[in-house]
Structures are given as structure tokens and as C-alpha cells.
Amino acid sequence: MSPDVPSLSVLVVDDERDIRDGCERILVRKGCKVTKAQNGREALDCMARESFDILLLDLKMPGMDGLEILRRVQEAYPGTLVIVITGYATIETAIEAMKRGAYDFIPKPFKPDQLRIVLDRAAERIRLTEEARRLERERLRTLHDLATEKSRTQTILQSLPDGVLVTTPDGRVALANPACARILSLREAPGPGQPVSAWVGDGGFAEFVARTSRGEVPAGASSLTYDFSPGERRYLRAHSTPVLGETGECLGAVTLLMDITELKMLDMLKSEFVAHVSHELRSPLSTIHQQLGMVLGELVGDVPPEQRHLLARAKEKTQGLISFIGDLLDLSRIESGIVLQERRALDVGGVIRGVVDFMASRARSRGQTLTLQVADGRKPMVECDPQAIEVVFGNLISNALNYTPEGGAIDVRVMADDREVRVAVRDNGFGIEKRHLEKIFEKFYRVKDDKTRHITGTGLGLPIVKGILDTMGGAIEVESEPGAGTTFTVHLPALRG
Questions:
Q1: SS3 category, 187
Q2: Each residue's pLDDT tens digit, 65-90
Q3: Cis bond upstream, residue 109 (ω within 30)
């Protein structure tokens, strides 16, 4: 019996005690539940009380012989496999038993391995029989059941407040619910089989759905998100997820459409408020910062160290506030889409090389090594705004420098294939505990412990990075081990062609 076959219940019927006990020892080691009977009458009583998968039956017993027991078992318990036990002198009787429905036979005297082999064959037969029954039950599902299931699915789809768009691998619409046409403000829904462009005039959305329908989703992401405006002062958000078959092939995609106009308007008001307040605060703070620098530079003579320290701390805090305001303005521009307005074909490796060169002096001042490796092969080309790429990797590399102690190493690796560009920023710094990993992309969240408490920051760098990547259809994942370092891996859709 193979390890994946569940335990079998076996009834051993033989008038010889040694045979019964020997079979029991072998079968128990195989994981079987064993019951023993010394004659036919006792065996039938056992089968009346409980069911058995296999019956090991001696053909030659006093009183009721094995053939009579076989006949009764065939009539009352047809699902039980009967394996007859026979001596060499009664081999012809064993053949007769096989003709009458016995599954197999084993001659006396037999070795343990012979019994195990016969039992394994019987276990496989039971497994195949059960699988055939299961398939038959599925095949015999009535048309009424199928119609009921279809009716329920249609009811659920029609009652959903969000639009549902099901597309084939070639980007054609196979199914859409009524909410989809309503959200898209269509007077009449196009028929099935039409391309996505027949439903939505936004070319970016059509390409977005086409990519997902082909299964072109960056590694580490299960779905893609796309925001667009189908008309004046209306905003929609689409979540598209590939549908995979049993062998991993892409069968198409399911896209959910949500009306986010109210949320978008609220975000715009919030962003305008943040931008206005930040702009008003930045000028006076910059002035105070410059004046503190001048005062510190002009302080000479008998100036108490305490006063100089207080002025230096004030200057440091104003610089922190200025950086914070800068991050708020960046976040506001990302949320309004300004950062990604100048999309063009871009060599990611070249942009990152510029960022690495700019930060090299900072790394050297801390005794750190900052290296860049661009893999040979396909050029890492994407379609995006150069400023957005600089912001993404400027933040990631800056964080790696900040959270790696002096003498540490930061390695940036760029790889590309036909589907995506991957950039890994790896350091051997302090690392991040697992409980923080799900929160580090939230606004203003910072990891603080004894090793990182002295590091200044706004808690907006990683939210800015994620916001840009979400808008670009990219993704970011993080792996970290406290005391060993952290790796951020960015996935960007490769430029096709």
C-alpha cells in the first residue's frame, strides 16, 4: 500500500491461528485496521456489524467453505475486494474463485513480501475505483443544477454595484454586468466579443486590460491598478487580475471598475490644501534656516558650547522640516499625476547610474561602498517620467545609506527580460523586523529602535515610492532580516518592441 493511500480495513478469515496472527502482524505494519475470524459464520457476523475494504479468505475451512462465503459476500457486500488464500493442492479452486468474482489469490505458504504486493495492488484498485466513482458523480450533475448555478452567478453579477469586465487572452470582452455600462455612461452596451476599446475610449485603459489579459503582471503582484477619467470631473479605478488555468496558462482577465469620483475630489482638495500650506511654510523656514547658518558662522569668541549646540540643533530641525515639506509637495504632485506627465522611453540603468554617482560622495564619507551592476543582455527600457524614476531610486538608495552603519555595503542590480525590468537595492544594514514589513509603505510610518532612533526622516519616502510605482503599473517587494540587511526589489513593465 503506497504512503498516499489511506488506511484500509481488512478482515482475515482462516481456520489456522498462525495464518491469522501472521497476516495481522504484516497488515498492521502497513497501517491497516485488522479484524480476524476463524470460520465463515464468524466472518459473516463481522461483516454484518461493520464494513471492510478487503477480505482475506481461506478457501478450505470446516463447515462453510470459502466459495460459499465468497458467494454471500458478492451478493451482500459487492464493494469488498476478496483475496483468497489457498494451498497449492487447491489452485484449481482458487481459479474458480477468481471466475466467481474474487479479486486475487495468494498460495500457502506465502512470504510477507508476497502478501504486501497483493495488498498494494488491491489498495490501488480501491483508489482507482473511488476516483472513477467521483468522476461519475461529477458527470451526472443534472442540467437543473447547472442552470441553477448559472442563474445564481448571473444574479450576483447583476447586483454588484461595481462594474465587472471579463476578457479573453486577446483582449476581447466575454462578459460584462449592467453596472459596467452604467459606470462607463454607455447608452447601449456593445455585444460580447468586442474589443475593450469598444467599451472605453481611453487607449491607456485598453492597453492596461490587454496586458493583464495576456498575463503580463510584474512578479510579486497579483493584479494591476489603473486610474482614468472617462469624462469631465469623473474618475474611475480599474483593478485587473489575470485568470490562470490549471497548468498556469493565462485564460484572460477579470477587471473591476469602481467610480472613485468623490474620493478623487476629496484627495484633490486635500492635496491642494497640503500644497498650499507647505508652500507657505517653506519660504519662512528656508529663511530661518539660512539665518541660523549665518549666526553659527559668525559666532566667535567666548560663546558657551551650550548655546552653539542649541543653535546647531535648531538649524538641524529646520532642515528636517524643510525636507518634510518637500516630501509633502512630492506626494501631492504624485497624487495629482504631475510627476508622471512626461512619459518617454527611458534606459533605467542610465538614470540609476546618475543617482548612484550623485550619492557616491555621501557613501564615501561614511566609509560605505555603493556599487551598481547592470546585467548583460536586454537593455532595461521602460516608458515613464525620468523624474519619477529618480525619485523612486533616490529614496531607496538614500534609505539604504541611512540604515546601513559606517563601513557597510549597498549594492544596486538592474536586470531585464521581455516582460519586466527588475531593480534590487540590497544593503547589509540594520534590517527590519517582520512585524514592520507590512506597514513601512504607510504614510508617516517609521521603524524606530535603539539602532535607528537617531536617524532623521519624514516617513514619506517609501509611500512616495509606492505611489509612483502604482501609477506606473509597477510593484515593489521587500525582504529583510534584522542584523543582516534589507533588499527592496522594484518591478517595472518593460517597454515592448
A1: coil
A2: 888 888 898 889 988 899 988 875 56
A3: yes
